[in-house]
Every structure is written in structure tokens, then in C-alpha cells.
Amino acid sequence: MTVAVLTVLGLLLLIDQIGRFVAVRIALPIFESSPPFQIQPLPPSETAEPLRITTPANQTLTAALFHPVGPPRGLVLFCPEFGADRWSAPAYCAGLLDRGFAILSCDFRSQGDSDAVRPGYRPIHWVTTCEVDDVRAVLRWIESDARLARLPLFLFGVSRGGGAAIAAAGAPAVRAVITDGAFSPRTMMMHFFYRWARLYIPDWLPGLLPRWYVAAMLKLVELSSGWQRGVRYVHLERILPRLKNTPVLMISGERDSYCLPRFTYRLQKLTRQDRQRAWIVPEARHNEARKLVGKVYDDRLAEFLDQAGALPKVAPDAPPAFVATIPAPHLQPRPRVAPLLSAPGESMPSAPGESGL
Predict the structure, then answer these.
(1) Domain count of the chain?
(2) Could you tell me the CA-to-CA distances from 69 to 43, 101, 104, 268, 316 in Å, in that order?
(3) CB within 8 A of 203, min separation 6: which ones?
(4) Which domain holds residue 256?
(5) Quick one: which of 125, 133, 129 has its CA closest to 234?
(6) Are 271 and 244 within 8 A, CB to CB?
(7) Does residue 209 register a pLDDT over 90?
(8) What is the pTM of this model?
(9) For residues 121 and 70, what is the distance between their CA atoms, to the nearest angstrom?
(10) DSSP-derived secondary structure letter, 252
């Protein structure tokens, strides 16, 4: 009897190990395949101040400092999305620049004109400790710069850059964080497994697998990728609870098919802050919010930074310097903007199709 039980257990263990091996072989290329984000490059700015920042590893980050008209009210460190460079900052930050904020935008290593992480390294869309280390290196440089160190400091990241901004937001000088389209591997991997698994395995199998088992397999895929690429992926679920005292505004698009609105609500809930700080922009796709609602976007961000940094409000004297990178005439802006802070007794509605997270 004992021999039979041990034999069955051995066979189950063997099947499990074979299943894990096959899962990694199938899922690893998918995990490392970057989505086809439609990123329109912007020309270099003739008015921005060029900067070169040296990291503790003696590598160089290429950056640009956009100066407002008049004395700056604060400094926003902008973290570009995957595939974009420092010149993309005006596509998201021009309204803040018009309202008196200086914008410091930096190319991540192996992106734009910064040094490579190492020869042959190829970045992908998941945020790693490489991008987080770059943001921290820039924060240390800001602290050493007499012009900038005295300014109220904020972080603003888009997509992968948003994850890097959140992960580096524990620095004492950071007063608040804004993200647009930020995501985390753990949440995304689980969602896309159940969405696409039936293309590779029988339809009936995903429903039979416990979620903890699926999570373990996906973790194995992530670890295998990290080992082969020499990186560690960053999970925002572990970091966001530590930011309960650092205001975080998370933006997503209602029609974002990659970073779904419910992902944004789920991540924002981990901050244990007012749920009004999750802003889902109607009709917007991934990183498309400012393109659709221009001035509403600019006003929302400026109001958030004013509140978070206890700054006096300043109305822009000129029209926004940059409103849209890609015209979208087929989409009509329909802004539905809730106040940043709820009135007494009010609460923010749940994400579409959700009763809670």
C-alpha cells in the first residue's frame, strides 16, 4: 500500500515538474514580448537645458531640464514610458510647465541617449530594478544641485516609468507621485494567463488549476526571465502600501485594453489613500488621457501637486504649450472629473464591473 501511494505521488510530482517546464518554455517568450505601443517621438527642445548625470556605477544618464517662465514653484522628475525618451516630457507635462513647474526628464539606461545597462542588454516593458536605480540616481543628483535641491520635488511616470516612479518614491524629498498607465507584473500576468491560456492549452484546464498554482508557475516564468536577463522585476503590490503618507494620483484610460481600469483601482487601493486619487479618463486608451482632455488633465495634475505640496495656486498666463501628440478627431472628449478630495460622506464609485477589490 505504501509503495503504491509513493508511486502515485512520484508520478504526480513528475507530471507537475514536466508541466512547469512546459509552461516556462511556452510562457517565457510571451512574457518577454513587449506590446506594440504606439509611441510618437518628439523632436529635441531647443530651450531645454541638456544634462548628463553620473550614476554610482559610473554610467551616464542623459537628461533635459525644462525651465518655466519665471522662478520655478517646484520640480517634477519625469520618467518616460518604455520606448520613449526625455523629449516626450512635454506631451504630458507641458501644462505643469505653463503653471510654473520645472520639468527634469531623463532617459533610462539602454533607452534614448543614456549608457547601456551592459553590452547587449535589451530592455522590455516590465519595470526592473535597473529603471528604479536610475530614478534614485537622479534623485541623489537633485539633492546635490544647489538650484534644484531647494524646490518642492514630485515624481511623474508614464507606463513603465510610472512603476519606476512609485518604486523610488520612498525618498524623503519626494512630496507626491503621479502615474499615467502604470502597471505591475503580478496583476498583469495573472489576468493575461486566464485571457490567453486557451490558445496554448486545452480549454478545460485553466479552470481546474488553483490560483495559487497558476501564481507559482507565473512566478517561475518571471524568475527564469530575470535570471536569463540578469535583472529583477519590480512588483508595485509590495511598495504601494508603504506610500500611505505620500500622495499618489494614478491615471488610466477607460478604454485601455492593456492596463485595465480595474488594475489601476486595485493598485491605488493598496496606498490606503482617498479613492478619488484613481482617475479613469473616459474614452482614453493607454497613455492617451492628455491627448483627449488636454486642459482638464493639466488642471487636475496642477491641482493635485498644489495640494500635495501645499503650494499657492497659479493660473497659467498662456495657452498650454502642447496638448496632443496624435490627433484623435474620432474621439470626442467627455470629461467627467471628480474632485481630488471627497466631500464628507461621499465615496468614489467602483470600477465598471467591480463591487470591490
Answers:
(1) 1
(2) 21, 9, 15, 34, 10
(3) none
(4) 50-184+234-309
(5) 129
(6) yes
(7) no
(8) 0.81
(9) 41
(10) E
Distance in angstroms (rounded) separating the CA atoms of residues 129 and 164: 8
**In the predicted model, what is the mean pLDDT of residues 88-116?**
96
* Largest distance between two CA atoms of the chain: 85
Alpha helices in the chain (DSSP H): 2-31, 90-98, 129-144, 160-168, 185-196, 205-208, 211-229, 236-239, 261-269, 289-309
User: What cell was used for 64?
Assistant: 533635459
Residue 299 inside a domain? The answer is: yes
- Domain assignment of residue 90, yes or no: yes
Please give the C-alpha separations between residue 148 and each of 51, 69, 76, 104, 161, in angstroms, as whole numbers.
13, 16, 10, 10, 21
Closest CA to 73 of 106, 47, 105, 99: 99
pLDDT the model gives residue 337: 34
Q: Report yes or no on 54 lying in a domain.
A: yes
Question: Which one, of 219, 197, 221, lies nearest residue 209 by Cα?
Answer: 197
| Residue 14 placed within a domain | no
Q: What is the pLDDT of residues 11-56, one digit of tens each?
A: 656 555 565 555 666 677 778 777 777 777 889 999 999 999 999 9
Average pLDDT over the chain reads 82
CA–CA separation, 270 and 263 (whole Å): 11
